Amino acid sequence: MNYFPDEVLEHIFDFVTSQRDRNSVSQVCKPWYKIESSSRPKVFVGNCYAISPQRVIERFPGLKSITLKGKPHFADFNLVPHDWGGFVYPWIEAFARKSVGLEELKLKRMIISDECLELISRSFPNFKSLVLVSCDGFTTDGLAAIASNCRFLRELDLQENDVEDHRGHWLSCFPDTCTSLVSLNFACLKGEVNLAALERLIARSPNLRSLRLNHAVPLDVLQNILIRAPHLVDLGVGSYVNDPDSETYNKLVMAIRNCMSVKSLSGFLEVAPPCLSAFHLICPNLTSLNLSYAPGIHGTELIKLIRHCRKLQRLWILDCIGDGGLEVVASTCKDLQEIRVFPSDPYIGNAAVTEAGLVALSSGCPKLHSILYFCQQMTNAALITVAKNCPNFTRFRLCILDPTKPDAETNQPFDEGFGAIVRSCKGLKRLSMAGLLTDEVFLYIGMHAKQLEMLSIAFAGNTDKGMQYLLNGCKKLRKLEIRDCPFGNAALLMDVGKYETMRSLWMSSCEVTLEACKSLAKKMPRLNVEIINENDQMDVSADDRQKGREDVPISDTGRAKEGCARVRVDFIGEPAELDPQLRASLPTFLFEEDIHKTEDNESPIELSSGQKSFAGFFNKAK
């Protein structure tokens, strides 16, 4: 029974911004379900095949903003077939046909065509924000359509996309009346841009706060841009190569003096390190610094830059900083909360940082709660020290580039080190592990990591018991990623009911058979179960092919998808209508066979093919 009018409840629900909390609200009672449904403006769909666009429109008639995810993140490392799917056009077509008032669209790892971008630009008159992350299928012609037709565009954010660059004219397609831009990011574009059009666009965008440029924007244009946009908060520098004694450089220094509002700095795709001193002026105000795409910045110039950044809360850096550089970070950046140390070259197993750098960070940065760390070696003693120094970790991802390497001092597995992490860090939600590991570490995780939501493991464990410990103990686990582990059918099928509460499971190069996957699909018909066979040698009977059975739909590339609650329309059959009470992201379970097996290699430095893809397994899109 409701004690408040619907209008009051709707106003109260407006203050509930978390997607999870909104889901919980909708499950209290039928009246709340209806009110929440009609008033929710933003929707997140973690698997674009989990629910149909038509059902989303029916469920959320007031939809204005949607986030869609397509391919698993393993697609970034060529572990998913290129034609797996992830097309956004059916969604946009459905929204346009039903006249949805779409204003914001965020896509991750999806295929979006120029035709689709054209449809977006002409179908939604109040469209304001387009964010594309790791997407492909489009060209700069599609961007030109967005620029030309979206009169109220506030945000165009292109991150890690594969864009075919026809020519750099798209920036000139913004009409002279466009003054609404707040955020513009085209750092991933490889081609030339119309520099004059870029300067004019920025000059008439008084509210611009975030700007990330590609390598085609030179130093003299950057200087002009900073003069026209002195209120930038987020700046991504493109090409930064010049003589520090030149007039252009001196003008840039003067322009930077007027940009003291910059809090986030990134880019430096092409850089002359001696010119970095110009940015020392704004470093004291920085809270975020991303140099993960700047291999040209290293040595003393990098250390000088870091020493000026005392307020940093977020740092992404390459491992060329070395242990000594990380010690400088630890002594300088006392407010640091997140750090990611990427390999300068993931294909050469010679990382420039070790356990010493990790220990220094943990002892010098007491607020640290999120870390991604690529290194050449590690010890249990170091991990135990880190666990004591930083008990507030919520994300801990450690990648030893040789994934089967033991403790560098004792030659023992890392069970005790990672055990210390999960015991001390009670709020740990995401964990990635590497190095020699046995079933014992999974016992520790199951016993202590009660808040864990995502786990990535590779080359670990001894028997099926390891996976059983995880599934039995980690009640909040939503995503589990497993590569090259000895887990088989018994572990997979032991407690299939557990999978109802999970979002996804990926198993690659494990000991799971096709028959076990079929059995899982039959036992749990509401799960999306896919088997990807890299070698196109799937053992499927001719009878199954002829009948085109729904429980074993076969594509022409030899992949099978079984027991889906909603059959993918780009495979076979029509989508089944979902119960309205179902959450908008059903679990997906993928099993990959016989790919990227580790090869023997005599060199202690060169990585085998399995280890190369292993590095990618941890190194997700930045």
Provide a brief overview of the structure:
This protein has 622 residues and is an alpha/beta fold. It is 31% helix and 18% strand. It contains 21 helices and 23 strands.
Could you give the distance between the termini? 47 Å
Query: What spatial form do the alpha-carbon principal axes imply?
Result: globular
**Percent range for β-strand residues:** 15-25%
Mean pLDDT reading: 83
Low-pLDDT parts are: 536-566, 571-586, 592-616
Integer-rounded radius of gyration: 25 Å
- Secondary-structure content class: alpha/beta
GO molecular function: auxin binding
Pathway: Protein modification; protein ubiquitination
Organism: Salix koriyanagi
Keywords: Auxin signaling pathway, Developmental protein, Nucleus, Ubl conjugation pathway
